[in-house]
Design goal:
alpha/beta
């Protein structure tokens, strides 16, 4: 029996969810069947009043597994913004795997993703169901930017020895993002964030790979980019995703390089600012790690469902520069950038285009229509998604370095 909808947007009445619904209303191709979903019918009806087109409406609540099961049974692709995912995500992923419904989300909760891998990768792989978490600003620019650099070096005849990424960004803070961070601290899972190979398969967790995969803890000057590099607060998420991508490709004989290493940093104009950011990150990590600190953060952070103003979201941007070095010494510079607040405008674009790639280009995606598992954006969606993002306003290019 054919499913009623190509894509269902779950969590559509939340702060990020509303943005995804408006993105679909503006950008979904003619003939695409889509619906909004959430637990409150009145809020869904108010959302529908402001949407172009004729999307469907589904009432579902993660606290009611039967309603979630019915929702996922109606979709070819399920897009969800309903977090914290460690709290609300399991019934949704479980139902997607059960009904062979492809899945994308915006989680940055890597300990939860690890549990999803352990529970569902085998079945999803056997069924050809793509379960693709981490499809927002964390971690599509890192993951696809690295893939872009690796492919460029491959075209130049060499495997990749290393990719060093550095970010510059401006944006606001969503209440849901902070809520997820606080929930991570409450759960006791935060200790897993230090595992640099947390998302890797067991076959790609060797001592040598761990030596190549250390997190940045200090500040230094990068002459190639002409900036100071400091630890990046999203690196403990993004680096794990890129390393899993390399491991998944390697399992198919397409690994990035025999001794591939990936690192990530934040670009700063001065040494003082770089150290200020580093110390601030350390203080935030300590706050998340303590009950009192989490209580203070909860008081000062936006509430879940709240976020930046339209002006802040429109005035944001991100840029990532990726220096890639080949095994033969060749070097290239990849650049990916886009306008808009990374946590909102960029995240929504990445997430929605990921869902649209699954809904409209499945045959063209890496591995063809039968690839499945708990995957990464690069391994599941690859260069077709990069092309979609370029068409949606991203700049993404690679050039040789002297």
């Amino acid at each position: 029996m054919a499913t009623p909808y190509d894509v269902v947007l779950y969590g559509a009445t939340g702060f990020t969810g509303r943005q995804t619904a408006h993105y679909f209303a503006a950008h979904a191709p003619t003939g695409l069947r889509w619906a909004v979903a959430g637990r409150n019918r009145a809020k869904l009806d108010r959302l529908l009043e402001g949407l172009a087109g004729d999307p469907g409406c589904i009432v579902a609540d993660s606290g009611d597994p039967a309603s979630v099961d019915a929702m996922c049974a109606q979709a070819r692709v399920l897009l969800t913004t309903a977090g914290p995912f460690a709290k609300y995500g399991d019934p949704v992923v479980d139902a997607c795997v059960r009904h062979k419904t492809h899945y994308v989300d915006i989680t940055g909760e890597t300990p939860w993703v690890r549990r999803v891998i352990d529970r569902h990768h085998g079945q999803a792989s056997a069924d050809g169901t793509r379960i693709v978490p981490l499809c927002g600003f964390d971690s599509i620019p890192s993951d696809l930017g690295t893939l872009m650099v690796v492919e460029s070096l491959r075209e130049r005849g060499t495997a990749t020895k290393s990719v060093s990424a550095s970010f510059k960004a401006k944006g606001g803070l969503n209440g849901g993002t902070m809520d997820s961070a606080i929930a991570l601290g409450d759960s006791g899972d935060a200790a897993q964030l230090g595992d640099t190979l947390l998302l890797n398969p067991p076959t790609h967790q060797s001592r040598e790979e761990r030596k190549r995969s250390r997190d940045r803890r200090t500040v230094d000057y990068d002459a190639t980019r002409g900036v100071w590099l400091a630890p990046f607060f999203m690196a403990p998420v993004n680096t794990r995703v890129v390393r899993r991508s390399n491991a998944l490709f390697a399992q198919h004989g397409e690994g990035y390089g025999p001794a591939f290493a990936y690192t990530e940093a934040m670009e700063m104009r001065s040494k003082a600012k770089a150290w200020g950011l580093t110390l601030g990150m350390g203080a935030f990590e300590k706050a998340i790690g303590s009950k009192l600190g989490r209580r203070v953060l909860a008081r000062v952070a936006p509430d879940p469902g709240e976020g930046p103003s339209e002006a802040v979201m429109d005035g944001g941007f991100f840029r990532v520069r990726l220096v890639g070095e080949g095994e033969d010494g060749q070097r290239v510079l990849g650049v990916m950038q886009a306008d808009g607040d990374p946590g909102n405008r960029v995240t929504v674009k990445c997430l929605c285009e990921s869902a649209l790639a699954l809904a409209t280009q499945l045959d063209d995606l890496p591995g063809g229509p039968d690839r499945g598992g708990v995957l990464t954006p690069a391994f599941a969606l690859g260069l077709p998604l990069l092309d979609r993002l370029r068409a949606a306003g991203f700049e993404a290019r690679v050039e040789p370095l002297g």
